Amino acid sequence: MDRRKFIKTCGLVSTSLLLSNDVLANRIETTEKQHIVKPITGSWFEFLHGSDAEGKYWNAVLPGFSETQWRAKIREMSDMGMQYLVLMAVANNGKTFYPSTLQPQYDYVCNDPLEAVLSEADLCGIKFFVSNDFWGNSDDTYKMMTDKDIAALRERAMIEIVEKYGHHSSFYGWYYPNESGLWNTIDDLTLNYVNNCSRIARQLMPKCVNLIAPYGTKSVRADDEYVRKLEQLDIDIIAYQDEVGVKKTRAGYAGKYFEALCSAHKKAGRAKIWADMEIFGFEGDVYKSALIPADFNRIQKQIEDVSPFVDNILIYQYIGLMNKPGATAFAGHPDSVHLYEAYDHWYRQGLKNKLW
């Protein structure tokens, strides 16, 4: 099962002790920690959440965004220091989020939201990982990763997407959103799916940088077998899910898993390690209710826990869970403004004190 399924199968954790805003404002006493803590540098990005229950606070709003509002949202994220955005899906449930010859298109106010966000990202210097799915039944991950007809449709879609959007400087690479999970190691299903996607991606865009974000981080045995699997996996970046939001673990515990994975990546000499950090909670039951912004104190712990072991921290996700006060492109829970303000204060203090 995969993340686009929408939070439905995660499992990990993240973080140790982080600094409070007061401590950060007065600068960190320990020089070492000043260099360990990293800010958030990117986020997942979506045109529609795959679960209406989880996307309760923004799914009804996003289809009404104008081109101007999509562009404003990209600028808003750039102003907060976002350098990377990962597009969750270019299609879903038999419809596309851009004008396509392959499937009918969702009826949005903005005729081509993908063009809008990539164009604005060009101006902001943001790098987009563009999704190459979902072209089948998004609930059947195994079929999405193995079915020959879907694979053929996915390849035609990648060709079409490059023809339409490959000229954008912000089109940095691809995101392969189907995930089979990491249970002890990388399975052959994942190896075959990822390597086939990368084969096509590199034929179409030889300089592309490609990313996956698997779940099951806690279960990984970062041993010699895992190193061998990494050596076989044709991927540039693995952003492991910390799985704090889905309550598979608690803030402050994921660091030990990321530390072991960091060591395995160094031995393999392949694939950079990033974090896919969950900044949400649930309004009610896990997986069955709306996603809501987490308390920033928890998020601080998550940041400090994984920072020493990853090159970049991406979040799941800005859309719906963070909004700048007075935003013209507001979509999400009312508390998303509070989370924005708390993180923005922390981030600006870090800039002021030259922590990053």
**CATH fold call:** TIM Barrel
Contiguous low-pLDDT stretches (5 residues minimum) are 4-34
Domain module tally:
1
Major sheet: 8 strands, parallel
- Which CATH class? Alpha Beta
Order of helices and strands: HHEHEEEHEHHEHEHEHEEEHEH
Structural topology:
Blueprint: H1 21-25, H2 31-36, E1 40-45, H3 67-79, E2 84-87, E3 91-92, E4 95-96, H4 113-124, E5 127-131, H5 141-146, H6 148-165, E6 171-175, H7 188-204, E7 211-212, H8 224-232, E8 237-241, H9 255-268, E9 272-278, E10 280-282, E11 291-293, H10 296-306, E12 313-316, H11 336-352
Parallel strand pairs: 1-2, 1-12, 2-5, 5-6, 7-8, 8-9, 9-12
Antiparallel strand pairs: 3-4, 10-11
Helix pairs in contact: 3-4, 6-7, 8-9
Protein model, in words:
By secondary structure, the protein is of the alpha/beta class. It has one domain: TIM Barrel (Alpha-Beta Barrel). A hairpin with an 8-residue loop joins β10 and β11 (291-293). α3 (67-79) packs parallel to α4 and α8 (224-232) crosses α9 (255-268). The protein has 11 helices and 12 strands.
Features:
single chain; 356 residues; alpha/beta; TIM Barrel; eight-stranded parallel beta sheet; two-stranded antiparallel sheet; 11 helices; 12 strands; 13% strand; globular
Summarize this, please?
The protein contains 11 helices and 12 strands. By secondary structure, the chain is α/β, with parallel strands linked by helices. Strand 1, helix 3 (67-79) and strand 2 (84-87) form a beta-alpha-beta unit.
